[in-house]
Description:
Layout: H1 15-20, E1 28-31, H2 38-42, E2 49-53, H3 57-68, H4 70-77, H5 84-95, H6 102-115, H7 135-144, E3 149-151, H8 155-162, E4 167-171, H9 179-184, H10 192-203, E5 208-214, H11 217-223, E6 229-236, E7 248-255, H12 267-271
Parallel strand pairs: 1-2, 1-4, 2-3, 4-5
Antiparallel strand pairs: 5-7, 6-7
Helix pairs in contact: 3-4, 3-6, 4-6, 5-6, 8-10
Amino acid sequence: MNSFMSWVGGKKALREQIVSMFPVNYSKYVEVFGGGGWVLFHKPPGRDFEVYNDLNGLLVNLYRCVRDKHEELIAELKYVLNSRVDFKRAKATLAKRGKKSQVKKAALFYQLVRYSYASALTSFAAQPHDIWSDFPLIEQAHRRLKDVVIEHQDFEKLIHNCDGPETLFYCDPPYHNTEKFYKNIGEKGFTEKDHIRLRDTLFGIEGKFILSYNDDEFIRELYTAPGIYIVETSRLHQMRQRYEANSQFPELIITNYEPFERSRLQPEQIALF
């Protein structure tokens, strides 16, 4: 199924490939940098214990409201208008200090995500969109998230807390040299030290990890190590598509296990696990 929202760096285009590279055996799935949750929503539910995490408090609050208070959230969104005036009002209201309910904050934030250019929250997109068409997606997401644990932790703390031999971590951190875009959406800066800290944390786990990154020399050097697999891939470059048809954005998928074991098994073998 699709996510109920778009988000900067979302993995809609790569979700099929990423899920196909999951290991056969794991019992806990942890999405460390949750974002739009495209991989979580695409993977089959009900076969493992699932955790969604993100450091953006507004994003985590939205997910919790979709899981626990979706009817209230939809009611709050029913009279939202797709207009520059409403967009600016929502942005100003969300930025104001003062007590707001979880549902009110979630509705304001969702309005900014849906009506901002490239879901970056900063400028009005001026594109046609009926927010009522999102309500079935929110209802589907509510059902999908009902058994998902939603966390709001730094990645290192989360990984240490969730680690074990049967844990699979999917990590989609801010890409190297693109961290400024995440500052624009109200997140704390992700520094070069954080990229190194993530590598060191993942190299020390008992479980397995699958990691998506931009194809960058710094990242290649970080993860070139025994027992680590680096797979080259690409997706359509959405921004460059406007002036260069079929332009590709090179990416890497990195694992600490053999990434094609699932594809080598027959369907009946996979069904046994």
